[in-house]
């Protein structure tokens, strides 16, 4: 039996195809972290842990016949999931009448799992010892000006890039914003005739993203080169079959993922 246990269900291959399509399309519309983080994998669901190196500090250490690696730690790749149920009578009725099955439950579960992934990328999970882009110790933090007026946002973000360049961090820069800050930038900048968001996008080669997972009043600028950070994927987003309970079909949308921050100086959080 495969890990996803699909063969234990009596669902048709066509219905599985429709469920997969609904889940993946919904997740893609929700996810933001994957749009700028390099993806490492998929490695397979059986890969349970992976190393996280501190850039520029890794090296072997010999001690009385033992060799270890400094500035390297190993972290478990956690599983993220959301369950949903499809009513057996609804599936039977749609098959009998020949119309599309209602997959709203699958869509909502996919969106919830995608939001969970983004929150994990940005905030980690302190209870379990995981760091996120905004919560990792040692990242650069800058006081955010009032972004509703003037060219404050442009100036702050340019200063963030300058601070990374001062630490010799160059490459692809990307900015992720909470929805309220993203909307604050949808205005004409005085004396330019341009929207402030357009000036910022031009500075960042278009890599500006809006993420509801950030909540409100938060922004993070990163140099998202693989040497600085990535997103480890074991099992990519998929749907597993759990059981038939009270005749209804129970499913799980799941993935195993881990954000790796290798160079803390490549992250600038605006507070």
From TrEMBL:
Coarse class of the protein's main subcellular location: other
Subcellular location(s) per record: Encapsulin nanocompartment
Transmembrane segments: none
Matching SUPFAM superfamilies: Major capsid protein gp5 (SSF56563)
Top-level taxonomic group: Bacteria
GO cellular component, one term: encapsulin nanocompartment
InterPro entries referenced in this protein's UniProt entry, alphabetically: ENCAP (IPR007544), Encapsulin_nc (IPR051429)
Gene Ontology terms, MF aspect: hydrolase activity
Keywords, ordered alphabetically: Encapsulin nanocompartment, Hydrolase
Alphabetized Gene3D superfamilies for the sequence: 3.30.2400.30, hypothetical protein PF0899 domain (3.30.2320.10)
Family named by the database record: Belongs to the encapsulin family. Family 1 subfamily.
PANTHER family from the UniProt entry: PEPTIDASE U56 FAMILY, TYPE 1 ENCAPSULIN SHELL PROTEIN
Protein name as it appears in the record: Type 1 encapsulin shell protein
Source organism of this protein record: Caproicibacter fermentans
